[in-house]
Amino acid sequence: MVVKTKIKDPDLIQKRQKQICRGAMRVFRHKGFHSASIREIAKASRISLGSLYDYIEKKEDILFLVHSDILDRIYECLNMCMDAYESPIDQLTHALQELLNLSCEMKDEMLFIYTETKSLESKYLHEILKREAEFTDSFEKLIQRGVDEGVFDCPKPRLVSNIIILVGAIMPLRGWNILPYHSSEEIVEELIHITLKALNVRGESVPGSKSRVVAAT
Amino acid sequence: MVVKTKIKDPDLIQKRQKQICRGAMRVFRHKGFHSASIREIAKASRISLGSLYDYIEKKEDILFLVHSDILDRIYECLNMCMDAYESPIDQLTHALQELLNLSCEMKDEMLFIYTETKSLESKYLHEILKREAEFTDSFEKLIQRGVDEGVFDCPKPRLVSNIIILVGAIMPLRGWNILPYHSSEEIVEELIHITLKALNVRGESVPGSKSRVVAAT
Amino acid sequence: MVVKTKIKDPDLIQKRQKQICRGAMRVFRHKGFHSASIREIAKASRISLGSLYDYIEKKEDILFLVHSDILDRIYECLNMCMDAYESPIDQLTHALQELLNLSCEMKDEMLFIYTETKSLESKYLHEILKREAEFTDSFEKLIQRGVDEGVFDCPKPRLVSNIIILVGAIMPLRGWNILPYHSSEEIVEELIHITLKALNVRGESVPGSKSRVVAAT
Amino acid sequence: MVVKTKIKDPDLIQKRQKQICRGAMRVFRHKGFHSASIREIAKASRISLGSLYDYIEKKEDILFLVHSDILDRIYECLNMCMDAYESPIDQLTHALQELLNLSCEMKDEMLFIYTETKSLESKYLHEILKREAEFTDSFEKLIQRGVDEGVFDCPKPRLVSNIIILVGAIMPLRGWNILPYHSSEEIVEELIHITLKALNVRGESVPGSKSRVVAAT
DNA sequence: AATGAATGAGAATTCATTCAT
DNA sequence: CATGAATGAATTCTCATTCAT
Fold first, then answer.
1. For chain C, is the Cβ count within 10 Å smaller at the N or the C terminus?
2. Is strand E less than 7 A from the beta carbon of A38?
3. Which protein residue has its CA closest to C1' of E18?
4. C-alpha closest to that of D170 among D114, D208, D131
5. Distance CA B149, CA B144 (A)
6. Are C143 and C160 spatial neighbours (Cβ–Cβ below 8 Å)?
7. SS3 assignment, position C48
């Protein structure tokens, strides 16, 4: 899916739309989508109001571009992470760890996705949900492979992959209630531990953690 | 916290504000808070525009009233549910079951809470988060009692209670990805199973479920 | 001219309308006529919104009542003052002195008259201007009598009486620029002095002033 | 002080704000500030509602612009007039004459200033009063110079300059009561005569008047 | 390609007035 | 006579979008 523009040069489109994404997100962070005016977005993007409309057609296009940009960044990280390991357990633990790290670093962006996806118009909504579904699928496949290899015990991999993705957003969604009591490192470690326990993995190893290495093999 | 009105009769205030809540929610369901106009809300509430403003001061007041109303309904159900049982395991399983049932029946309302809490103005936001925190606390205490009684194994009850509440919203937040593959009954059952497993409960019994009554390890 | 009411008892009308005048003026003082809402006026008058409308028909009626009330108070004082003296010079000096004193004590009221008379609807405007004209007439007659008696030199008594009345409002209209430099007593004394000079009165006596008594007859 | 705009081109701002001033004044003349709606003002200014708000921020800004514009016009005339003469008597008589002429030609504008200055918000009110004060100062200095040169007898120049300015608005404020009896030329001539008399000027000459050229006492 | 001025539909909110009790 | 809840027209202001330069 592509946003219709008045401009021909594809490189310029790419560059300016990225510029708009970053500017827009800077505004959305504080005011949300609806309260952000196109004027503010143009100013934050260091682009004129007229030019802005050369690269998009409607305000909602920006919402889609920002969604796309955020998902791109998240999925790229996670795919790289999964590709770096072979065994399902390693893949899962590292992917989960990466997801949780991202949810710290990109807290605002993830919260934005959770709160503003509903504002997408139907055409864009389906596109974005399709991409989210693909992402969930990759987790599901990973778990299924673990089940097939006998390292995971999980009768409903789709449900569990959805839980994982939901819990992957625990920082933006529930951080306000947890962070005053636990550091993000503690949270990440414990969440991986719980996940592996829920998958009946015995003798887990948590990457980057000393305290639990004793239980390894 | 109370919304300032021009009306004196407290019963009438109560009645009309409830009326407004229901009407407003009917509109918010389809359009969200920002896209819903005050005129639509008035119409849906079967109240005149002028009268509406006799019972609130600003549009944001409606957002708060709706939040309050939804939380009231959810928390009342859950408190009744917890009070009906003695043992932490029974309390937890029934509360979780009730929470998940509510998240089916009040899917839109819960999604609304997750997506629009950010639109509350500071004063109201704090009030609502305070109530959510109290709710989380009651889950935390429940788990802690289970730990004290030796039936739960859980080093970070606060984290886990937050996970439970987050997962309690899995229907509104991830239902679109799960429900095409599993019935809500299946989901509820499996989620309770996973939760108890995460708490290291051996020999669990799921209420209303036959299949798992003897499903010990 | 009389404001139409729903109430019969004339004493009650009198009493309540006075009550409304005082309440309304309290609000007008700070916000002016247009920015004052009927609700505020009712509250300040310690009368219910419904009752208020038993004693007036429209908001403008209040404006007229307040105008009437203020003019009544001013003219009553001045008429008493003029009646207390015989000679034109005494009458003029004491009337002017009284007028200037009133313009200190009723600064807000006089300013209100000057700024809000234009808001009166035609019917009321004519009534109020008629009363102001009568008031100007009485000054004009006073001056004319002085001219006839040979104590004043004034070819255009009407113009001068208008000047006197205008200067009588110098406190509310220009006080902000004068009062930081001169006390109101100084101002009053000097204004009387100038007025008598303008009327070619030689050897004037200013009431209540010591400094100028030496110049007395 | 400058009204904040969304427009960058300063010439355009100047031009449009003047356009708005004139349009607004056309409406204010009949209805006053509060009763004039922004829509009417836009229409009278031959500018669209949206554009209007590109050149101002709030309705009150228009009030300030109009005040500014009127004072500019008046003060420019008077300064030119004062600069054209050397002696205090000439300056005073010509300035007074000019002021009274202006008060005939700009009757509505002056009345507007007197009745609507109170509607200015604090920030603007102070600015406008500052300019009025400067204007009064210039009259005070003129009188003081006359006193220093021995041609005026005036112990309180500040008070007298305020009287002059107040009397300078006699046409808009009291014209309704005088003009049916005297022509504006008569009024102007007599007012100058009285003023000079009040300043103890002997052997005055009124500009443009023959009858009084030798009218010494 | 880029700029920024122009537009008007639509938003929230206020308030004089009426009317049932 | 008194009360205060109800009404909806009118108001100010915002903002996405277009268009001339």
1. C
2. no
3. C50
4. D114
5. 9
6. yes
7. coil
- Asked if residue A109 and residue A84 are part of one domain, the reply reads yes
* D53 and D80 inside one domain: no
Q: What does the block give as tokens for B107?
A: 């899917």
Residues 18-57 of C with CB under 7 A from strand F: 47-51, 53-54
Domain-located, residue B1: yes
Phi, psi of C123 (to 5 degrees): -55, -50
Percent of chain D residues past pLDDT 90, beyond the cut = 91
Residue ranges in chain A whose pLDDT is less than 50: 205-217
Same domain flag for D29 and D82? no
**Which CATH number is D13's domain given?**
1.10.10.60
pLDDT above 90 coverage of chain C, percent: 90
D65, part of any domain: no
Q: What is d(CA B144, CA B139) in angstroms, rounded to the nearest whole number?
A: 9
Q: Domain containing B98: what range?
A: 70-214
- pLDDT-derived band at B204 (thresholds 50, 70, 90) equals low
Q: Is there a single domain that holds both residue A143 and residue A181?
A: yes
Domain boundary among A19, A35, A57: A57
Q: Determine, for residues B177 and A160 on separate chains, whether the beta-carbon distance falls below 8 Å.
A: no
Among chain A residues 22-61, those with CB within 7 Å of any atom of strand F: 35-39, 49-50, 53, 57-60
CATH number, domain with residue D206 = 1.10.357.10
> CB of D194 within 8 A of CB of C162?
no
| Whether residue D139 sits in one domain with residue D53 | no
Burial of B180 (0-12, 13-18, 19+ CB in 10 A): exposed
CA distance C14 to chain D (A): 30
Shortest CA gap A173–chain B (Å): 8
Enumerate the residues of chain A whose CB falls inside 8 A of the CB of residue B174. 162, 165-166
- The verdict on D78 and D49 lying in the same domain is no
* Six token digits for residue B40: 């639509």
Same domain, residue pair C44 and C96: no
- Residue C204 has a pLDDT of 52
Tens of pLDDT, residue by residue over C161-178, are 999 999 999 999 999 999
* Domain count of the fold of chain A: 2
Written as six digits, the tokens of A189 are 């470690």
Residue C205: pLDDT over 90 = no
In a domain, residue A63? The reply is no
pLDDT at D216: 38
C-beta pairs of B9-17 under 8 Å, 24+ apart in sequence:
B13/B55, B16/B47, B16/B51, B16/B55, B17/B55, B17/B56, B17/B65
Structural domain includes residue B64? no
pLDDT, mean of residues B65-86: 95
Chains touching chain D through at least 3 C-beta pairs below 8 angstroms are: C
- Closest alpha carbon to C1' of F18, residue: A50
Chain A residues with CB-CB distance to B182 below 8 A = 156, 158-159
Look at B178 and A158 and tell me if their CB atoms are within 8 Å.
yes
Chain D's closest residue to C154, CA to CA, is D194
Is strand F in 7 Å reach of the CB of B90?
no
From residues 170-189 of C, list those within 7 angstroms of strand F by Cβ: none
Residue C213 predicted with pLDDT over 90:
no
Rounded CA–C1' distance between B54 and F2, in angstroms = 21
D43 lies in the same domain as D87: no
